[in-house]
Amino acid sequence: KSVNEELDNEKIPCEFCNDQINVNDWNSHAEQCADAHRRRIENLKNGIDNEPMNILVPCEYCNKQISVQDLEWHTRQCDDEYQRQRQILQNNETDFISCEYCNAQVSIVEWELHVNGCTAAERQILGDLTKHIVVDSSNESIPCEYCNKCYSTQRIESHQKRCRRKETSSTFQPNALHDEVFGVIHTFPKHWDLSSLDNLTRYILDHTTEEYKFVANKFHKTLPSNHIIQIERIQNRRWYRQYDAHKEDFIERYGQSTERWLFHGCRKSESAEAIIRDCFNRSHAVNCAVGQGIYFATQAMISHGYTQPDANRLRHMFMARVLIGRTTGGSPSTRICPPGFDTTGGENVFVTYHDAQAYGEYLIVYK
What we know:
By secondary structure, this protein is of the alpha+beta class. Helix content is 38%, strand content 23%. It is built from nine helices and 19 strands. The protein is elongated and about 115 Å long.
């Protein structure tokens, strides 16, 4: 009898509410809890079904924004099409093409999806490189291209205008810093050596000169541990004439040239040689995160990420004169600069869309 009394008084937890229930009452209590649980689930379900679903989510195949109600059906359609295309290619010889970002061989079916992923990764890398960089040009000194004296960024434009007027008004001399073509006098930077009559001449700078130090200091500002092998001044007269014409146009439109010294990294030494011969060519542009043009960076560290060492472990980077003008945002599909603007990007990265809008005056070879 005492054993039965102990069993009658024993309590066990309800599997729904977790309350301690007497053994004799447990079955009826559990049934009530189960009914209540079912009603609660049904009410929640009805509430969700009756609530309007206007949320849009991207399809994992085509990346289109699809409403929640239609997503499952749409995804099945995309998946069927994807499998169909995949089967077609598997039945034939599958074509592979290189990704313009990572250079991986990707099948035609997966190429667009792959490139979209690489584009997003490229933008993220670019953002990570630039988000901690603060450009402070208030104390920066820039040498005048005519008299080679250094002036602050606020004063350099007005000073160069005065120097330019003096140069163009002076009498033409065979060894002066002018070049007369078809009766038109073209002015070149005063520090150029015009003893040669060739269109293209290249001069390796002496590391003790102010010119060398000017370039090296800008380079080492964000790449202090990299060793410069040599700095070469590029004197391409035809290219500079084209650049100078652009510069005059910018001065007429904005009252100043908006010229800045920026960096451009080269993946191969052959690319650097091609630029020296024929100037920047935007048709060769890759990794077009903010526009299909030529990319320049305010910091050598950013451009360093786009260089690759050659067989001798040497890297190549230009320090170029770039006409910034007005800047706006860009995207991978931007092929020409939007009307009213001259560059896309901004802050630390600028993209130009005219090949002669920049002049690569110095080629830095480094490790």
